[in-house]
């Protein structure tokens, strides 16, 4: 139907609607109504009484109820031709070879518009765009990665972090994606979903294979200009790295801190310092994952002995994908227990204390808290913490908790 004929019909049969309807209300009404009819597979195409209340509520229409019914009856014959799926069309045709300007499914850009480094903030300027793949819970998408640059200090701003010289402070997750490699990005949604799957002891390898079978192997994905000519499969390494980075961001954001990494070191070692700091803190404070045990986190291992006789030990907690999966248990070490036993004139116990903690924030079980609870948190220091603090008066121990993003 031609537009002028549609307008003429409105004027002839529904004069009140013709003189009241705005372009804003018409486009939103037709878009949502055609989508509802499409999803119903034709089962409610004529049931205006059941659909109009939903449309008025969802769209906050200013039209009176009677005019909404008139608008439904006017547009209903055209719903099949009105309905489109913008996301699907962009995915299928956004990177057609004959297009000079490509249309990505997502555009990822820094959430800040002014420089955070300069004393006098400068407006950020466009530096470059890159076409990349974005991994999400519903599959692989095309994305345009926008890099901005400060004209004052030459700091570069990317969707998930900004960098100057050799350090790259990484921002929080509100940007919608994290850079994993030069051509891959992962959304926080997929990392959260992957974490819960991994908690059920599914390996990165199997998880990557599952994702690729569902979203890559039989799906036509457009090749990207300037990107490697490979299928955008989710690799085990990308999956692991995404979980590591997501865990670090979540941990530091909860502490009100910013993740800083040294870009002058090799990429595979860039996050090791930050991981070590988080793991050391969790070792003192405990883990929220209570009573988890699997073949990957509890292992019996041979230990070297001075007399050469065989001796077995076990690992009571491990770090998997940057997340500590262990047990709420007393952190009194074998050395500390031997020290206490020596004071009491008792034989040394075999191994560390295995008593569960009352809460994840405790360091020791109730019995050992009375004797070790006042000690400096920088273990294995044997000194008591000074009044009102968590550490002794040694400067290196005083500096340790703030370096981890905690007080």
From TrEMBL:
Protein name, per record: CxC5 like cysteine cluster associated with KDZ domain-containing protein
CxC6 like cysteine cluster associated with KDZ domain location: 319-398
Limits of the CxC5 like cysteine cluster associated with KDZ domain: 103-214
Pfam family, one: CxC5
Organism: Melampsora larici-populina (strain 98AG31 / pathotype 3-4-7) (Poplar leaf rust fungus)
InterPro entries reported in the protein's UniProt record: CxC5, CxC6
